[in-house]
From TrEMBL:
It comes from Gryllotalpicola reticulitermitis. Its cofactor is Mg(2+). One of its GO terms (molecular function) is hydrolase activity. Keywords: Hydrolase, Magnesium. Its EC number is 3.1.3.-. It holds the Pfam family Hydrolase. InterPro entries: HAD-like_hydrolase, HAD-like_sf, HAD-SF_hydro_IA, HAD_sf. NCBIfam families: HAD-SF-IA-v1 (TIGR01549), HAD-SF-IA-v3 (TIGR01509). The keyword Transmembrane helix does not apply. It is an enzyme of class 3 (hydrolase). This is HAD family hydrolase.
């Protein structure tokens, strides 16, 4: 079945968030190291090693609007100051440097434009479904030139529902005017994207760019792809 709508995850599916994160941490680490007399590469590596732990500790606040990028990165750089035993009064400045460099370093994958073009040609409606603060996610969409590329944009902090909760999927479908069984959701996480899509009655397409193995206990996608390019011929059938 060719879908009437594509629901698309953002980070990791349409944009390489990891390259942006690394750029942001490296930029702030360079200044941190210069100020305190440490090695910049070592600071960057050490900070990257615990960044996911800090993010996980603030996940609920991040997804539902209780924390923005400045606050999250501030928590990362307060942790860095604690790790190195230095006063953290300058943490806000490092958080700002981190965020600006992260935004500048983010890029969309090369297969995004052809997919969106194929969807438009086939008359298939599109929506972003993404977890995070509204200003942050919209800033990232703007930075990679995708702010006006979709028929709808659903951001968890703005709608009060975060993947894998079915409500954010239902809101997207209602805005597009498409029934669940006529939509596909494309995302890179099994726990958030595929589990949420299945619960909402939407076909879940797992984009597995890194070729990782799926654990038997994880949500089972209806379809697995390595690149978005694999979907273009399927969408072209509806044109």
């Amino acid at each position: 079945m060719t879908p009437e709508a594509l629901l698309l995850d953002f980070d990791g599916t349409l944009v390489d968030w990891r390259s942006g994160l690394v750029a942001g941490i490296r930029a702030a680490a360079t200044e941190f190291a210069r100020l305190h007399g440490f090695d910049a590469d070592e600071v960057a590596a050490r900070t990257l090693a615990f960044e996911a732990e800090v993010f996980e500790a603030h996940l609920d606040a991040w997804t539902l609007g209780g924390m923005d990028a400045f606050a999250l990165h501030g928590a990362v750089w307060r942790r860095a100051h604690a790790e190195y035993g230095v006063d953290d009064h300058a943490a806000p400045a490092f958080a700002e440097a981190h965020w600006q460099a992260e935004l500048a370093g983010m890029r969309r994958y090369d297969d995004v434009t052809p997919l969106l073009a194929a969807a438009r040609s086939a008359g298939i409606r599109t929506a972003i479904i993404t977890n995070g603060p509204g200003a942050v996610q919209r800033g990232k969409l703007e930075a990679v030139g995708l702010a006006d590329a979709f028929d709808a944009v659903l951001i968890s902090a703005e709608v009060g529902s975060a993947k894998p909760d079915v409500r954010i999927f239902e809101l997207a479908l209602a805005e597009l005017g498409v029934a669940p069984e006529r939509a596909w959701h494309i995302g890179d996480t099994l726990a958030f994207d595929i589990a949420g899509a299945r619960a909402a009655g939407v076909e879940g397409v797992w984009i597995n760019r890194d070729g990782v193995s799926r654990d038997a206990a994880e949500a089972l996608p209806h379809r697995e792809i390595a690149t978005l390019a694999e979907l273009v011929p399927l969408l072209a059938r509806a044109a």
